[in-house]
């Protein structure tokens, strides 16, 4: 398989193929196949890995950074956190303990290093059953059912947040959701009025990262790049926000790369826990991509001491959805075993 080829076959993982009798480098390589199934902004997969015996270094691949939409690299760091969380959940499942070192990364430094230990005695506070959901979870862009979340489900979502620097807000008050929907519409209008933003979005659409066929992707790229779809997108996304039973917001106490990475880990853990309860999630990033809108969101939600990092919808849908394709792991390994 060509390492530059997008494919859905990466989702077809069989845990029985874990190389239990192979060196730890090969075992780490197997675990990374779960890491690359993590969500990322525009499905850009902005990560790079190196394996050195029991040490796995995670780098930001800045060739996949969304420089226009994600000017401060917030979404890039969140995406890396999602991949790290999948890796750690898989490591636990196959009997590893691990230690994570976070770095306030520069251009050439790793954002984190995960060191594996094979004694398997590490206790975990994660909700049960997350490993299976790594290959089941998907993002839905559909309208959600008019169905509220039961309290036990809400409790599980809150219990999924294990990081001291991360807080979760679950918003279901209609007036507040309406206000957030209005902010979403304003943010969509601003972004879609920016030709550079449309060009960047069009690139990822055009190469098939969002799962469309080659022909449909190229048509969609042309439409996105050359036409201002602000009215359509703002109306559609505002309705998605208002109609969702829950809007989730992750907030961190600081705004440095390690805090953002931890917020990404928290989101992926929450998304997997939601999937286990037949819920789906849908990130809504546009508000947070515009500093003034991000600040207004924090004010509306009542955040007095923290930074909004990740906004998303939560709900139920009967919509059937295929997984979006991924580039195979080999594309992201800087050294080959």
TrEMBL record:
Protein name: Nitroreductase
GO terms for MF: oxidoreductase activity
Annotated signal peptide: none
Lineage per the UniProt record: Archaea, Methanobacteriati, Methanobacteriota, Stenosarchaea group, Halobacteria
């Amino acid at each position: 398989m060509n390492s530059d080829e997008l494919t859905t076959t990466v989702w077809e993982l069989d845990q029985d193929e874990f190389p239990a009798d192979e060196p730890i480098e090969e075992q780490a390589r197997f675990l990374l196949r779960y890491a690359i199934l993590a969500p990322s902004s525009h499905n850009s997969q902005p990560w790079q890995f190196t394996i050195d015996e029991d040490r796995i270094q995670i780098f930001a691949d800045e060739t996949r950074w969304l420089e226009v939409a994600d000017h401060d690299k917030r979404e890039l760091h969140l995406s890396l956190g999602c991949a790290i969380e999948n890796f750690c959940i898989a490591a636990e499942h196959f009997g590893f303990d691990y230690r994570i070192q976070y770095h306030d990364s520069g251009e050439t430094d790793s954002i984190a290093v995960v060191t594996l230990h094979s004694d398997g005695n590490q206790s975990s506070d994660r909700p049960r059953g997350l490993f299976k959901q790594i290959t089941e979870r998907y993002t839905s862009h559909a309208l959600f059912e008019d169905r509220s979340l039961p309290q036990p489900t809400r409790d599980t979502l809150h219990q999924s947040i294990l990081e001291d620097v991360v807080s979760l807000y679950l918003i279901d008050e209609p007036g507040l959701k309406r206000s957030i929907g209005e902010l979403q519409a304003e943010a969509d209008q601003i972004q879609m009025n920016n030709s550079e933003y449309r060009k960047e979005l069009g690139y990822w659409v055009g190469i098939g990262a969002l799962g469309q066929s080659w022909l449909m992707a190229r048509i969609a790229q042309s439409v996105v790049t050359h036409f201002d779809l602000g009215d359509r997108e703002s109306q559609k996304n505002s309705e998605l926000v208002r109609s969702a039973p829950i809007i989730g917001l992750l907030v961190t106490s600081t705004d440095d790369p390690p805090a953002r990475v931890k917020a990404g880990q928290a989101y992926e853990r929450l998304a997997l826990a939601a999937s286990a309860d037949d819920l789906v999630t849908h990130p809504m990033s546009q508000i947070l991509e515009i500093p003034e809108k991000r600040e207004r969101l924090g004010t509306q939600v009542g955040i007095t001491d923290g930074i909004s990092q990740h906004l998303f919808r939560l709900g139920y849908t009967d919509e059937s959805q295929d997984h979006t394709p991924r580039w195979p792991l080999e594309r992201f390994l800087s050294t080959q075993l």
